Amino acid sequence: xxxxxxxxxxxCVISFLKRRYPGFAETAYQEFIAHVEPDFDExxxxxxxxxxxxxxxxxxxDKPLEGGLSGIELYCVENPDQRGNGYLSQLREAVNNQFSxxxxxxxxxxxxxxxxxxxxxxxxxFWVRDYSLSEGLFREGEQGPCGVIVARLTKTxxxxxxxxxxxxxxxxxxxxxxxxxxxxxxxERPSFLELARQTYGPRGGVMxxxxxxxxxxxxxxxxEQLADFRVQLADRYRELADRFALKATWxxxxxxxxxxxxxxxxxxxxxxxxGDLGETRVSTMEDLDEILGVWxxxxxxxxHNALGGRAPAES
Length: 315
What we know:
- There is one protein chain.
- Helix content is 45%, strand content 12%.
- By secondary structure, the chain is of the alpha+beta class.
């Protein structure tokens, strides 16, 4: 697990804890999984691997060890590597100024490697230094709200950053009334464990990208079943579009998918295809998951010109 802020890293803390507690990483992972309760049959390989990274982040920031100290705090107390006060001060600042939440990405400055994030639970705004998401998920010059991030933030030297991997990224714009609903629920941020469970736990969501997992009763190699499924999916999307007042029609979604150039990622196209959800009636993460799940299914079963008129499910 590496920090995305220059000069701040936690590898020495992890190495110390592994020396101090044999089997530390595996034990922490098992505890994390017991809390989150993911169904690994419903997770892509990428998301299953991410759980290992998230478990390690939880283990050094949140898991209570001797005297109730976190792993980072214990490292600072014992200083086993005889590090200087500068580094220890950075660690202390990081552990004392950290929290987990859901953020609306309000602005992206790729040149400066910064994201402007709105904490949807409290309404607070944070400028976050970032060296991968800003380049990997967003385009140069992209303005305005452009996604939702679930993650931990921490601060050292006056700069906020992600100390590890993000828990989740949703490539859509969160409606203002959805932000209001979340704030009206009490303004309290969920814990890192709670956010991980909401994303990967029993509730499910779009973390599964496998059609076979989402729709186990459909044989996508059977032309008749595939055709029937496309009709059902169209009806399902139209029902969601009507219920949530989505701007994108089924026909526009299919057009975007059919004519994608083979270079754009599903995440990028989804963001462009669904557009701004700010004026829709999407109010909860369950609503959002349902919409994104249907869109991802469409990506997998509708024909792509870039694939010679075939769907990914047929390839």
